[in-house]
Amino acid sequence: MLKVKVYADRMSQPSRAVLIFCKVNGIEFDEIKVEISKRQQLSPEFADINPFKKLPAIVDGRFKLFESHAILIYLASAFPGIPDHWYPADLSRRARVHSVLDWHHLNLRHGAAPFVLHTVLAPVLGLPLNPQAAAEAEKILISSLSKLENIWLKGNGRYLLGGLRPSIADLSLVCEIMQLELLDEKDQERILGPHKKVQQWIESTRDATRPHFDEVHKVLYKVKEIIRAKKSNQGDGVMQSRTKTPLASKM
Amino acid sequence: MGKLKVYADRMSQPSRAVIIFCRISGIDFEEIKVDISKGQHLSPDFTEVNPLQKVPAIVHGSLKLSESHAILVYLASAFTGIADHWYPTELSRRSKINSVMDWHHSNLRNGAVNYAINTTLAPALGRQLNPKAASEAEKVLLSSLKTLEDIWLDGDGGFLCNGIQPSLADLSMVCELMQLEVLDERDRNRILSPYKKVLQWIENTRTATNPHFEEVHNILYKAKKKFEQQRARTAETGTSPSNKTGGYSKI
């Protein structure tokens, strides 16, 4: 069988989760970069891979798949030797992992992605800031973080659902939260500060997936520097230059 | 293991999907009504079952589970004698079903539920209709319907991913679309009629799951009548609708 192809842009959280999962588990794969900032996901070649024109997507032999959770489940099931904790075979534990993964879509993701877009990324993407959309997203984000802290991270385990080892849900959700790195420090503190368990869980997941976690997140730290530099330039009264930052519409 | 308990309000689409699935699969279960319009989902008793305070939820032995897709997947795996087409064992086929179910959250569900609330249901929930939110939701809904028509229902199968029999994804998504029944008839036709494959697929799913489908949807047809009468009264007298209709926060 040919190596699995992973179409990804590391600026997209779900892309990062899939890449980290492959690396941590020694899955042989080719990473094919699809740069959202260059609109490569809209190309006819990529539309042939994923008609939804979204990242990540995989091709394994003749099989094409998209949606990161479906991809993670597929990889955990299709490749031999993946440790059970990622996607437990036990039905009840597996069901609970599904439950967090499903919850994620209209909660954490629904809050974090638009909040970051409307507070820091929009100007960099040449879009106007939308404070009202930011405020609405913030509500969803904060309520999601509080549910993570009080419900999903309840118990003594270091991971979701009282787990002692990370599952694909931990990886997906932590990659989502990592985009909050792009916020300025005050906002970050205000939003994440009250959620101590969430902070500890991010560290645990990072530790469990090192060095791949940090390597795959490098691009995020670079963009953070660019945003910061831009801000201090504006502070100095310097004209805002047209950006070349590689920013992703799927952040 | 004790009998499966299903906590549900039939006015909630995901509740309906779970109940229909149990019935059609001959799963022995007890339906426990959690009336959202009476705030029963917020009660301490139900919070014990599902700390997220949402329906549907199930209790099966020591497992408490929320999120309808996770529940459906669990039921299809935990009970014997469930027809394979609901959640196919073959990995690539199963992965496609997972992929549609993931797509659903931020697309069809996000569009349909917010459109129905902001055009029709809000007054019954003690909220104001919000035309701006309705028009945003309409965009998401129409784009989701187009994606269903052109991509997910591509092929001659009659069900999603070119299936010739329904899967969990068909059931979940058709139940979601059924809530458009409460809209004004003209509006519903305007939205759905361009999508011939979608209309045919709703019929296919209904036929494949009758008589349970119709029986579980009865409550929705009653609500539809109520809204029709209300609209007629409003048209006659010019008064705005009262707040007396049973309201449902998770519709």
UniProtKB/TrEMBL annotation, chain A:
Organism: Stylosanthes scabra
Residue stretches making up the GST N-terminal domain: 2-83
MF term (GO), any: glutathione transferase activity
Keywords attached to this entry: Transferase
Source organism phylogeny: Eukaryota, Viridiplantae, Streptophyta, Embryophyta, Tracheophyta
Keyword Metal-binding found: no
Name of one Pfam family that matches: GST_N
Domain GST C-terminal: 90-247
Family according to the record: Belongs to the GST superfamily. Theta family.
Top EC category: transferase
Stretch list, region Disordered: 232-251
EC number: 2.5.1.18
Gene3D superfamilies, alphabetized: 1.20.1050.10, Glutaredoxin
Keyword Plastid: no
Gene name of the encoded protein: GSTT1_1
Name of the protein in question: Glutathione S-transferase theta-1
Signal peptide: none
Source domain of life: Eukaryota
InterPro entries with a match to the protein in the record: Glutathione-S-Trfase_C-like, Glutathione-S-Trfase_C_sf, Glutathione_S-Trfase, Glutathione_S-Trfase_N, GST_C_Theta, GST_N_Theta, GSTT1/2/3, Thioredoxin-like_sf
UniProtKB/TrEMBL annotation, chain B:
The GST N-terminal domain, residue ranges: 2-83
Keywords: Transferase
SUPFAM superfamilies named in the record: GST C-terminal domain-like, Thioredoxin-like
Domain GST C-terminal per the UniProt entry, residue ranges: 90-227
Transmembrane segments: none
Highest taxon of the lineage: Eukaryota
Record-linked PANTHER family: GLUTATHIONE S-TRANSFERASE T1-RELATED, GLUTATHIONE S-TRANSFERASE, AMINO-TERMINAL DOMAIN PROTEIN
Listed name of the protein: Glutathione S-transferase theta-1
Gene name as annotated: GSTT1_2
